[in-house]
Amino acid sequence: MASMPHLLELKEVRREFDGGRIVALQGVSLTIEAGETVAILGPSGSGKSTLLNLVSGLDQPSSGDVRFDGKRIEGRNAWADIRATRIGIIFQNFCLIPTLSAEENVELAMMTQRGGAIQRRKRALALLQHVGLTARAELRPSELSGGERQRVAIARALCNNPDILIADEPTGSLDRKGSVAIMEMLRELHDRTGATLLVVTHDPSVASYCDRHIEIVDGRITRDRAQRRGDARLATTSIG
Amino acid sequence: MHLATLPIRNLAGQPIRSALTILGVAVAIAGFIALTGLTEGAQHSFASGIDEPGGDLVATQRNGYSLLSNSIPQSLEKELSAVDGVDAVSGVLLNITTADDEANVVISGWPPDSFMWPNLHLVAGHVPGASEPWGAVLGETIVEAFGKKLGDTIELQFQPYTIVGIAAFDTVLNQNIAIVPLAGLQELLGREGNVTLFQVRLKRPLDPDKVTAVRARLATAADNFAVTTTSEFSGNLRFFRLMQAIASTVSVIVLATAVLGIANTMLMAVNERIFELGILASIGWRPSRILGLILVEGLAISAIGGILGVGLGLLAMIVASSSRLSAGLLEPYMTSGLGLQALIAVFLAGPLGALYPAWRGTRLLPAEALRRN
Fold this sequence. Notes:
The structure holds 2 protein chains of 2 kinds. Chain A is α/β, with parallel strands linked by helices. In chain A, 31% of the residues lie in helices and 26% in strands. A 6-stranded mixed beta sheet of chain A has the order 6-7-8-3-9-10, sandwiched between helices. A 4-stranded antiparallel beta sheet of chain A has the order 2-1-4-5, with helices on one face. By secondary structure, chain B is of the alpha+beta class. The radius of gyration of chain B is 28 Å and the shape is elongated. Chain A binds chain B through residues 50, 53, 56-60, 76-77, 80-85, 87, 89, 91, 93, 95-97, 99-100, 103-104, 107-109, 111-112, 117, 120-121, 156, 160, and chain B through 1-3, 5-6, 9-10, 12-13, 275-276, 278-289, 365-368, 370, 373.
């Protein structure tokens, strides 16, 4: 019986910038299975965001191989299609279109799929309801708080029922209370849907929501270990 | 939310820049419409004006540059009249002159026995008789514009003429015309024995074969002269061809300016929104879809500017044609062909101007674009 392919697989991935003067990743190899919760930890400039960009096809490796679901993905269109259907990305700075409302920002991610405007709007509103933003659906990002913006971004990431949620410093722009809410939400989504969760963070308390921790320093994986959940959960007691 | 929502919001987000670009396109399209329309209008005005008095064919100088400078000996009238199938021939001397030193009008000299006099639709007065060498029949528009009435005097070619008749015409050219006896006008212009053209009326009934045959005979009789239908006549004038060439050249330049304006605006807009394009890529928009979005934005600018431009162009034509300097030669002339050309220009200018910015906007890797926040 053939074994299931890895959801994500990196083989000797190297990423250089500025004509090779900057090396962000130096021959990184790693596999991530479907349903895992993985935190990629490391200090600023260690290469963790570059890694995230590579596994989501937002960037291309200088050398090495990135495979999604066992397949080597060639070309921007192929990666765009995967991001449209199988990957949901959440950014530290939310990455919302400022001229669109919260609901429209969510809808925007569904415009690559079949279906009419009414269906899209219904689904966008349902997702915003799920993240507790029903009353804020018509507001623009500038009218929302940081936590609310991140919840819009989560709703957007969920709109196409992705196999994997990739979050780049999802709590980086939030206060501790907001951070807890967002991480609880992501973990709950994983528990409920079984989607793989890949979180890039430099914060061990954020990483504690994940079961596997990969540490990167200077573009190399220095540690990859299973982690007992709740070891360093975000403390909310310090607020107020 | 639909596909146009984002481009519309983007344009609305930079209202002054969008408005200025739209205005730039509008002025370019207006320039195209006005230049081409007025050129074609002048030609049309001449053709229909020449046609109105009832001639079937026109004999005139071959390859004449401008109608007014054309010269043909009046003596040719006899030879043309003798051609089989010709009913009547009338010499016509045309010029543009100042009326009462105020505005330009077309002055047309007809011989006293011209077959065209009875074709005039007089609303008042009569045609100049043999004893009225300085009598004139004026078009209604010119009479109204100058506040004249029957019996008043109007100075044409520095000669006081008495208004003996007022005629109604369908064409803009003739509404602004002053028709006077030929001999007096020849004397005033120093062109005794010459006319500008001959109007030729053919014997009835008319059929196309007959017209062709008579035309060939006339061409033989009037060797070295051109015998054409009235519509061909204006089209053959080099002056109009030159006008068309100038109008086309200037139109191409103004349209190119519009394309560059759109390109500049879109380039700025794309540069400012590289990050947004990165967001779209990150949520699974293909480069072609993002490219389409930018092209739609360019098209929207172009379409709004185009609609405004057509309106402005029509307005410019109306203003130009109502000018007292136009001598009734200019008329607002908007054809479906001209509209179609403007439409094509509009639908090409927008996407063409947006193409390079769009390409630039999509060639970046999404991660690179997202770093431009």
